[in-house]
Amino acid sequence: MSVTTGLIIGIVLFSVILIGILVARPAVTLSRGGKMLAFVALFILPIFSGLLGFASEMERSKTTAFCLSCHTMEAYGKSLYVDDPTHIPAAHYQNHRVPKDQACYSCHTQYAMFGTLRVKLYGLKHVLIYYLGKPPAPEDIKLYEPYNNRECLHCHAGARSFEEGAMHNADPATLPAIKSNQLSCLSCHDVAHDIAHLKDAKFWKGSVN
Amino acid sequence: MLSANLLEKRIQIAGLFLIAGLLVEALCLFWALPITFVVFTAAGGLLMFIGIAIFLYSLLSTN
After folding, report:
1. b/e A104-130 (16+ beta carbons within 10 angstroms → b)
2. Same domain, A50 and A133
3. Where are the domains of chain B?
4. Which residues of A touch B8 (CB under 8 A)?
5. Do both A100 and A36 map to the same domain?
6. Average predicted confidence (pLDDT) for chain A
């Protein structure tokens, strides 16, 4: 457990104790001091604790471990260790082009207004399907919409390797087409989570951390 | 005007809902799993919302 989580649990338990006192002795709220205590314990502290807890849950929901805790996602986690530089997610993960502890979220959020909220709502739907429905086989999972170049350009735009790349500049129309999402990055960099062929893949064993 | 007894009763009910909500929240923080995220927001959030709503209603009723 992290220090932050421990601190939040401490605040929550402190709130529970204060509220417990009010529940056991509600008559204290008749005095002026008691009313102030009730307002803090029954209004301010629960909201404060709730917001802190929610922020913590949101941060934890961005972690790689969180995404891979679902059995359906195990193959996707494994695909991050494929020993093939053309395998885009593996190359990003192994070379720290994305933070290792937020690997899924870094590429599968939407870098737009309310993008995080939108992907979290998708995640909520996934949880409901996982527990109450019939989850699809890992190789049958598809994106809701074609992968938007915006998610790649969030990091790559302005980078020398992208802006001056030979293939990106072979035709003067290519770079503007990529930047305007008319030409998908995946049309060339097309190996991403090749789950169907995972059993034949060679895996990188250089690091497990 | 609300009688002191009824006000105390409502504060106790609000407190019990809030304690339940806060305990759900605290428990959920022990695991980083998708199901705990859902329980945190749905069950914990709902219990705390009800508790706060009852408390605020009891405050308004006293005037």
Report:
1. bbbbbbbeeeeebeebbeebeebeeeb
2. no
3. 4-61
4. 26-27, 29
5. no
6. 91
* Among chain A residues, CA nearest to B44: A50
Q: Provide the ipTM.
A: 0.88
Residues A92 and A47 occupy one common structural domain:
no
Mutate which: B5, B7, B10, B11, vs A, most A CBs within 10 A: B11
Q: Is the pLDDT of residue A118 over 90?
A: no
Residue A156: pLDDT band (50, 70, 90) is: very high
- Give SS3 for A201: coil
Answer yes or no: do B40 and A26 touch at CB < 8 A: no
Same domain, A37 and A120: no
Out of A22, A130, A131, the one facing B11 most closely (by C-beta) is: A22
* A135-147: pLDDT as tens digits: 888 888 889 889 9
Domain that holds residue A51: 3-60
Three-state DSSP state, A46: helix
Confidence class of residue A208 from pLDDT cuts 50, 70 and 90? low
Q: What distance in Å separates the CA atoms of residue B36 and residue B32, rounded to the nearest whole number?
A: 7
Instruction: Find the length of chain A.
Output: 209
Q: Does A169 reside within a domain?
A: yes
**Domain annotation covers residue A69:** no
Amino acid occupying residue A206: G
